Amino acid sequence: MLNSDIGPVYHLVKQLGRLLPAFFSDIGAEGVMRDISTRIDEICMRKDPLSHFLRKQSHVESSNQIVGLMEGALSFWKTGSKEGLKPLLPPNIYAQIETTGPYVDGVHRMVGRLFEQEDLNGIDDLLKLDSDRLKERAGRVAALTAAPCCGD
User: Which of 4, 40, 47, 115 has the smallest CB count inside 10 Å?
Assistant: First the structure.
């Protein structure tokens, strides 16, 4: 259905998708993904436009398109380049994204160091890590960088 021409019946298909429990659990938008996006937004006191938009979209959209946005955010935090976010964000949100500053610098250092220490090549490699290992490594990286996150 995702690759079908549903334009004429888009709203009906969207309503149907909301009725199917597998729709939400397949992407995790109602569980861990939503909880994490909320936590990140709260840490940043809702002042980081990217984190705030990410949280709002994961709560409202609840579709597989949010996965691409989250991967784009991870890529931005890894590289510091926001170009990859351009097709994923509305122009007004994209214009608000800073490439340096209190809501970017600490996260950029932490994600960059995590990629270095784990010898990861891309976002896919990060997503394949076991969650317990990722938590342990992220905690270790946070202690090493001693970098404040989101203006803390």
Answer: 4
Is residue 2 in some structural domain?
Answer: no
**pTM for this predicted structure:** 0.71
pLDDT at position 26 is 47
| Rounded average pLDDT per 10-residue block, the chain, 152 residues | 76 75 47 78 89 85 74 93 95 96 90 88 85 84 61 49
Q: Is residue 1 included in any domain, yes or no?
A: no
Q: Domain range for residue 130?
A: 98-152
Residue 34 has a pLDDT of 75
Distance, first Cα to last Cα, the chain = 44
- To the nearest 10 degrees (0 to 180), the angle between helices 32-43 and 65-79 is 40
How many angstroms separate the CA atoms of 1 and 27, rounded?
16
Asked if residue 60 and residue 129 are part of one domain, the reply reads no
Same-domain status, 53 and 128: no
